Amino acid sequence: xxxxxxxxxxxxxxxxxxxxxxxxxxxxxxxxxxxxxxxxxxxxxxxxxxxxxxxxxxxxxxxxxxxxxxxxxxxxxxxxxxxxxxxxxxxxxxxxxxxxxxxxxxxx
Length: 108
Description:
There is one protein chain. By secondary structure, the protein is mainly alpha-helical. It has one domain. Helix content is 81%, strand content 0%. Helix 1 (3-59) packs antiparallel against helix 3 (83-107). The two termini are 55 Å apart.
């Protein structure tokens, strides 16, 4: 075989190899982009659920806590009704959602 034939063979081989490599890299790049996008969405979900949790905690009526311990009058536990009960349940639900999303972000 002449040198000319060896060069053309190596160029063809290199070209096909590079095409295959490019296809593999494009697949990997797609999956890496998908993973980064998923992690970004999970972090945004954690941030939004955390903000909602803080707002729900702030909106709840303060009817106990340290104030009861500092004052000498003892009050009976207040039953939550209506909006206060809904806020209380929503706070618990968003606390669970926020904790779960933080765990998922930590393990990802």
